[in-house]
Design brief:
Helix content is 44%, strand content 23%. It is α/β, with parallel strands linked by helices. It has an eight-stranded mixed β-barrel, surrounded by five helices. It is rod-shaped and about 170 Å long. Bound molecules: ligand C2E.
């Protein structure tokens, strides 16, 4: 028999080391000899004191102890041994046979008791069995320790995984979840075990999440991967994004599946999975996505997103035979504010403008920042032009109140061009381009207003280029003509003034009117040359008529916003006037209210300078623009021109007639002269006369005519009785 089988070897694999303690040398010797004969490694100790000193120097697997020894007895040695070498077992070999002594020895930890005189076989059997048991115990402890270490290692790996690791039963209840769930979502693993996993799914993802687990084809080779939002617990109450990968558990590869160790709450784990927190990635993606389709300053959709939405809206409108509106908004005076107050203020202004505009639109409409100070607005389903008109008015009104930028109070206006699908274009690009063209027409008319696109505005780019080239040539070839429309005193029928109106004698297209070419001239800045030409010609013509016997004859000229806004406007105008020797007091410039309001401070200054030099100032189209009465008494204004639309309404007491009443009364109150435009009928003339408005202009007295025709009329001694 090998030592392993006889119980001679200890857990370390060598022959067991025994300590034999007895104060009787004969007995000690015979015991040691017996044990050595069996192959044990035996050390003898002659008494308790000797035993303790040996224990200090050597280690043993088993001690055979006599109890009754002088000075240091067996109990003392047992106590010493258990203190110094707790793994060493003890067998008492003693002549002491009282129950009390035996029981005391066993209570102190002795593993067995052999009474002297001993039977050698019995002693050897007992020693072998004790050593065998001890070695089994040690082996078991060792395995236990390794198991615990291994379990701790795996638990550590699972819990320190950056992901949530979980197991679910067949119905989706948690069987296991690692402690990462607490760090990421705030739940204790114990509170989730036994609960269905949908309890932590965001409501929006419950259907998708539960289907994913139940869905077909989920195998170990084909795990289910999906992104869901999970709810966090407690005060955070937010959701986080997770990428979940779940596998079915194969009972073959995980034998514990049938075991109680694989069960929690009596359920067997069927799915194993990980949930990786991808919130940061999702947020970064969302931000990149947002950045690609939004303007970061105003947080509005950008050009790309606007176009995308418009494309969709057109498809929808086409299918449902509906209309839609595209608006092109351009801020008036933004550039001036940006240049004078700086870009930071400009940015703040754009944000404030955005806020106001957003308040005017409905959910489903798309307002976008198209670039710079340009915005576009999509109204995806409108019933009529009137819907778009209402919104435009609302937008204009919303921006009319001043903006407070730090200590600065600034005013901006907005020019809005509107293109309605399908009339103004059926494609996205056409609609945007036509809304832009309509917006330019608003700008050319003095800004701050809205206009619908119409075919007459549509000049395709080739046509446009030709027109621009032609207009340049027209200036060189002197094709631009100045016509004059008389302004007549209705009580005396005398011509008191002449309004200079530009015409283009086009070599192929015949006589063109301002609406056919002035917007283009404004856009291309050719307007300054056109205006200079008109001014030169008018000063020449009217100057001559003044000199020829009409000393009070007034020349009224229209000025474009571009001209008036020019920093050297007053200087340039006066240079021309004096160059022709034209008396400043005979000159009246016509500007619209909008031009004034676009830059009240600057323009008032310029108007004051002109007024000081004797030039008269008339407000054209009065009543159609801002109608902010506030500026009237602050500016050197001489004349109000009542817009044609109000004069036309003088028919059986329409609202327009009331407006004429009000304007005339106000002009009288402010001691301003008043000229009614567009008078065509006797009835209108009579009505205006009855109100005390005596200066009129309109087809009733004749349209604008070339200089030679006017010249004849003025030279006619009966010129006072105008008859064209
Ligand atoms: N239906 C109707 N219309 C009448 C009647 N009486 C006059 N009109 C028209 O009404 C317009 C009056 O000029 P406005 O309001 O200053 O409006 C002018 C003015 O704003 C602008 N404009 C004309 N000439 C010049 C110019 O030399 N420089 C600038 N900057 N603008 C000009 O173009 C606009 C249109 O000019 P026109 O086509 O010449 O049109 C003129 C005139 O022909 C009438 O009884 N019935």
């Amino acid at each position: 028999m090998t030592p392993e089988h006889t119980g001679l070897t200890s857990s370390h694999g060598f022959p067991a080391r025994l300590l034999v303690v007895d104060d009787e040398p004969r007995l000690l010797n015979s015991l040691a000899t017996l044990l050595r004969g069996e192959g044990y490694e035996v050390t003898e100790a002659a008494g308790g004191r000797h035993a303790c000193s040996i224990i200090d120097q050597m280690s043993f697997d088993l001690a055979l102890l006599d109890l009754r020894m002088p000075e240091v007895d067996g109990f003392d040695v047992m106590a010493y041994l258990s203190d110094k070498q707790p793994d060493c077992g003890t067998i008492v070999v003693s002549g002491e046979s009282s129950f009390a002594a035996v029981s005391r020895a066993l209570r102190r930890g002795a593993l067995d008791y052999i009474r002297k005189p001993f039977d050698p076989d019995e002693l050897l059997t007992t020693v072998s069995s004790v050593i065998g048991k001890q070695s089994l115990l040690k082996a078991h402890e060792h395995v236990q320790m390794r198991l615990e270490k291994s379990e701790a290692l795996h638990r550590y790996i699972v819990n320190s995984s950056p992901d949530i690791v979980f197991m679910l039963d067949e119905d989706g209840h948690f069987c296991f979840v690692n402690s990462k769930v607490e760090a990421l979502l705030g739940y204790q693993p114990s509170e989730l075990c036994g609960h269905h996993f949908r309890h932590i799914l965001d409501d929006r993802d419950v259907a998708r999440g539960t289907y994913a687990l139940k869905g077909p084809n989920i195998t170990a080779d084909n795990p289910r991967t999906l992104e869901v939002r999970l709810k966090t617990r407690g005060s955070r109450r937010a959701t986080r994004h997770f990428e979940i990968t779940a596998f079915p558990i194969d009972p073959q590869t995980w034998p514990q599946s049938q075991d109680t160790r694989g069960r929690t709450n009596g359920k067997t784990a069927r799915y194993y999975g990980t949930a990786r927190d991808v919130t940061e990635r999702k947020e970064a993606e969302a931000f990149i996505n947002f950045q690609a389709y939004h303007d970061l300053l105003t947080r509005l959709p950008n050009r790309a997103l606007f176009k995308d939405r418009l494309e969709l809206a057109i498809t929808h409108a086409r299918r449902n035979h509906q209309k839609l509106a595209v608006m092109f908004l351009d801020l008036d005076r933004f550039k001036v504010i940006n240049d004078t107050l700086g870009h930071a203020m400009g940015d703040r202004l754009l944000q404030a403008v955005t806020q106001r505009l957003e308040k005017c639109i409905r959910k489903g409409d798309t307002l976008s920042r198209f670039g710079g100070d340009e915005f576009t607005l999509l109204l995806p389903s409108i019933h009529s032009h009137d819907d778009a008109r209402q919104i435009s008015k609302k937008l204009i009104k919303a921006l009319r109140a001043p903006f407070q930028l730090g200590e600065h109070e600034v005013f901006v206006g907005v020019s809005i061009g509107i293109a309605i699908y399908p009339e103004a274009g059926e494609s996205m690009d056409q609609l945007i381009q036509n809304a832009d063209i309509a917006m330019y027409h608003v700008k050319a008319r003095g800004k701050d207003g809205y206009r619908f696109f119409s075919e007459s505005m549509s000049i395709d780019s080739v046509h446009r280029l030709n027109l621009e080239r032609d207009l340049r040539l027209a200036l060189e070839r002197n094709e631009l003509k100045v016509f004059y429309q008389p302004q007549v005193c209705s009580t005396t029928n005398r011509v008191v003034g002449l309004e200079a109106l530009v015409r283009w004698q086009h070599p192929e297209r015949g006589l063109l009117y301002p609406r056919d070419f002035l917007p283009l001239a404004e856009e291309t800045r050719l307007i300054s040359q056109v205006s200079e030409h008109v001014m030169d010609q008018a000063c020449k013509d009217v100057g001559q008529w003044i000199r020829e016997g009409n000393p009070d004859l007034r020349l009224a000229v229209n000025l474009s916003p571009v001209q008036v806004e020019h920093p050297r406007f007053v200087e340039t105008l006066m240079q021309r006037v004096t160059a022709h020797g034209f008396p400043a007091k005979n000159l009246e410039i016509e500007i619209t209210e909008n031009v004034i309001m676009n830059d009240l401070e600057q323009i008032s200054q310029k108007l004051r300078e002109l007024a000081t030099l004797g030039v008269r100032i008339a407000i054209d189209d009065f009543g159609t623009g801002y109608s902010s009465l506030n500026y009237l008494h602050r500016l050197p204004i001489h004349t109000l021109k009542v817009d044609q639309s109000f004069v036309k309404a003088i028919r059986g007491g329409e609202d327009g007639a009331c407006i004429v009443n009000a304007i005339v009364a106000m002009a009288h109150g402010l001691k301003l002269e008043i000229v009614a435009e567009g008078v065509e009928t006797d009835e209108q003339l009579e009505y205006l006369r009855s109100l005390g408005c005596h200066q009129v202009q309109g087809f009733f007295y004749g349209p604008a005519r070339p200089a030679n025709e006017i010249s004849q009329t003025l030279c006619n001694p009966n010129a006072e009785a105008v008859s064209f």
